[in-house]
Each structure stands twice: as C-alpha cells, then as structure tokens.
C-alpha cells in the first residue's frame, strides 16, 4: 500500500462559481481572506496542493494576488514566514475547466448531500494512482449541473448531532485528516 | 464501550486570554465572528456543547451577544434558522476559572507543541466517564502558566507536510471528528 500511496497526489479547489445560493439558484460568492488562509494552512499541514481558488472575476483575482503578495513579498513575510510558505501553493483559475486544461486531474466532488448513491470514502483515495483534485463549493454547495462530470463524489461527513452543515473550512480539515490516516507510512 | 460512551459528554472553550502572542508574551485577542460561527457549527454537527467563548472584556461580551442575537431573534433567524439552532450552544465567560465554578469539568488542553510527554489521544476520551471540557487557544496558543492545571493535554494533530500550524477552526474540526469515530454506536 505504501508503494501505491506514493503514486497518488492530491490537490484542492474551492469553487466560487457556479455554486448554489440558499434558494438553490445558480450563484457566485466573493473570495474571503479567511478561506484562503485556512485552505492553504490546512493543505500545507497535510502535504496537499496546489490549492486552486476558482472565481470568474478578474477583480477577485487581483484581490487574491494582493493578499498572497503581502505574505510572499510584503511585510507579512517578515511577520510570519510560515504563512508565506503555505501560501505558495495558492493558484488562481477562472473556472474548473481552466484547471483541467492545465492538469489532467481525477475529479472528486464534495457535498453534504451528494446526488449519487455510489460514493468514494476519502480514506481509500490514496490507493488510486494519479493526480486527484478534491473540489469544494462555497455558498450552499457546487452547482454540479453546470460543471464537468466528476469521476465521483466523496462520502459526506456524517456528524452525530442535529445540524448537518459544516463550514467549508471545517469540511476541508476533516477530509484531509481522514485522507491522511492511511498515507502516514 | 457504548455504555461507557453514553456517560461521557463534551464541551469546548476558546480562550482569548491568557494566550501567547507570536513573541511568546502573555496577550489577549479579539473575538472574531468567523470563530464563533465555525465553532458552533462544528460542535452542533458532532453533538458537542456548550461552546464557551472566554474573554475578560465586557465589550467583547456585548459584541458576542449582538452577533448571537441576530441569529437567535433578529432577521438572521428567518434567513437561516439552522444557524440559530447551532448558536444556542454559545456561552460567554470572563475566564476559564469562571467556567469551572459553574460546572465541574475534566479539563483537557490542546497545543501544537504540548509541554508534557504523557498525552491523551482524543479518540479514547469517550471511554472516560464525566463532563469533558476541551480547551483551545487563539493567537499562538494557551498561556497555560497563567491557567488552571488541566487533567491532561491532548495529543497534537500531526500532519505530513512541512507546515505544522493549523487554524484553530481546522484543529477543532479535526479533533471532534477523531473524537466521534468511537462515539458512533
């Protein structure tokens, strides 16, 4: 298994369009600084990357570059060099299609309520050779009807409480921790 | 084990003072809206509560009450009733000592670099009867020298990457997910 595991690598995408709003309509969200930081830090911790921030708007890319620049070259670099180290994995894309043109990823979508019955347990993903891209949606989740067909959907995170909707930051952390249990040599 | 598990319950505290700043000095952080929301949502998902926000300043308690009120009684309640459901678990305290006066908790501290060698794996906590309080620090972590002596420290989350510092939101999510693996009947 450790030989197989070494042939699998993992990247993450956070999609801001096309996603669903609370009413189930196609929508766009703004990029947030907290998502960037939590995503790059969690991914750095678990050796996962690149971290693609997917947003169609030029202005959002400019904002992302400014935030990353602060930590890579700006005064944030001196203040917290570790943050700059993490943020190096950040990549910007206009769409998921653009990401797939650049790299031939095996595509895994996430949802609290996946639309399919046959699901992939993320803990088993390291057994599958190749470059895996794990895709998260902002807002009320991925508008998959307007997205490329994935190779599969990951099993949702099942809690034991009444509420069943984690923040995307918490979902990422839990998925990568579960992914890693079998990757530790 | 399931009989024992039913005799254990779990609460969480997020400490804003006394914590360490990047230079290792005793310090205070501001409460952030994102920590409140991520903490109550993750805890609701895993049936963990109350969620204590620990801050010495009256003004911060006023801010917390205003944020919670928006979701409990304000227009946020209509916009997203689930958020109000989660935020009911929020409690405010001036200090951890105040929390312990109110409730006789078994106290567990968290750190990326715990000061002790003997550590508790959170997955084994449900085997210990009682009310457990899992304590997280903001900033660069708990200033434990100025805090009550805990019953123990939890094993830190070990990644496999270069960077070893998760956001407190990600750490909470991972700990509660690991806590829950043995709690599911």
Structure description:
The structure is a homodimer of 185-residue chains. The first copy, chain A, is built from seven helices and nine strands; from the N terminus they run αβββαβαααβαββββα. Chain A has 185 residues and is of the alpha/beta class. Chain A has a single domain (2-180), classed as SPOUT methyltransferase, trefoil knot domain (Alpha/beta knot, 3-Layer(aba) Sandwich). In chain A, a hairpin with a 5-residue loop joins β2 (19-20) and β3 (26-27). The longest helix of chain A has 15 residues, at 58-72. The model of chain A is unreliable at 1-5 (pLDDT under 50).
Q: Which class do the helix and strand fractions of chain A yield? A: alpha/beta
Q: Please give the most extensive interface between any two protein chains, plus how many residues each contributes.
A: A-B, 38 and 39 residues
Distance between the termini of chain A: 9 Å
**Tally of DSSP helical segments of chain A:** 7
According to CATH, the fold-level topology of chain A is: Alpha/beta knot
Q: What's the CATH class of chain A, please?
A: Alpha Beta
Question: Could you list the spans of chain A in which at least 5 consecutive residues all have pLDDT below 50?
Answer: 1-5
Oligomeric nature of the chains: homodimer
Lateral arrangement of strands in the main beta sheet of chain A: 5-4-1-8-6-9-7
Fraction in helix of chain A = 25-40%
Largest sheet of chain A: 7 strands, parallel
Tally of strands of chain A: 9
Q: Sketch the topology of chain A as an H/E string, one letter per element.
A: HEEEHEHHHEHEEEEH
Mean pLDDT reading of chain A:
91
Strand content of chain A: 15-25%
What would CATH call the homologous superfamily of chain A? Answer: SPOUT methyltransferase, trefoil knot domain
């Amino acid at each position: 298994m450790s030989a197989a595991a070494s042939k699998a690598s993992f990247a993450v995408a956070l999609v801001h369009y096309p996603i669903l709003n609370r009413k189930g309509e196609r929508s766009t969200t703004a990029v947030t600084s907290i998502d960037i930081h939590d995503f790059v830090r969690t991914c750095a911790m678990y050796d996962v990357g690149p971290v693609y921030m997917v947003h169609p708007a030029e202005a959002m890319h400019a904002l992302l570059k400014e935030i990353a620049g602060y930590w890579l070259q700006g005064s944030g670099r001196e203040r917290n060099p570790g943050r700059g180290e993490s943020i190096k994995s950040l990549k910007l894309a206009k769409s998921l299609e653009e990401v797939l043109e650049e790299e031939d990823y095996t595509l895994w979508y996430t949802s609290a309520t996946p639309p399919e019955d046959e699901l992939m347990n993320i803990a088993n993903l390291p057994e599958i050779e190749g470059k895996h891209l794990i895709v998260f949606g902002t807002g009320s989740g991925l508008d998959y009807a307007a997205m490329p067909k994935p190779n599969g959907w990951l099993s949702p995170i099942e809690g034991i409480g009444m509420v069943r909707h984690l923040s995307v930051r918490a979902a990422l952390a839990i998925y990568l921790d579960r992914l890693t249990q079998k990757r530790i040599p």
